[in-house]
Amino acid sequence: QVQLVESGGGLVQAGDSHRLSCAASGHTFSSYAMGWFRQAPGKEREFVAAISRSASSTYYADSVKGRFTISRDNGKNTVYLQMNTLRPEDTAVYYCAAGDRTYYSAPYYQSAGQYNYWGQGTQVTVSS
Questions:
Q1: How far is 24 from 64, CA to CA, in rounded Å?
Q2: What pLDDT is recorded for position 27?
Q3: Contacts of residue 99, Cβ cutoff 8 Å, sequence gap at least 6
Q4: Among 62, 89, 111, 118, which one is most buried in terms of CB atoms within 10 A?
């Protein structure tokens, strides 16, 4: 069982940078692939970024590629999402997710169904 707690959400200006954190409980954090998803009002939850267990591979949605960076610190049981050049369309509830499945390629990391555990979400609002 893994419990995930996101933090760092808030109100920011367009063009600003901001970092989200997700702290995981348990002693097996390094055995989980980690992902960030987001859900805007009236829209479906969508993939944002993912990172492999060893941090050797990262994956991004086209909409955030070049602006967002996912990273993890297995010693601190924490995954981060650094968000730069934020846009109003980045406004959403951001969810952290952990998965212990087998991830063969990018589509597996990008699928919400491949993650076992989810955080409660943190709101990010980007004003123009």
A1: 24
A2: 73
A3: 32, 33, 34, 35, 114, 115, 116, 117
A4: 118
How many Å apart are CA 41 and CA 76, to the nearest integer?
Answer: 32
The tokens of 116 are what? 């076992």
- Indicate the helix (H) or strand (E) that contains 86: none
Contact by Cβ (8 Å): 45, 38: yes
Which strands, in side-by-side order, build the sheet including 18-24?
4-7, 18-24, 78-83, 68-73
For the chain, the helix, strand and coil percentages under 3-state DSSP, each to the nearest 5: 10, 45, 45
Q: HSE of 116 in the Cβ direction (CA atoms, 13 Å)? A: 13
pLDDT of residue 103: 85
Per-10-residue mean pLDDT for the chain, 128 residues long? 94 97 91 97 97 96 98 96 98 97 90 96 97
Query: Phi then psi for 127, rounded to 5 degrees?
Result: -95, 145
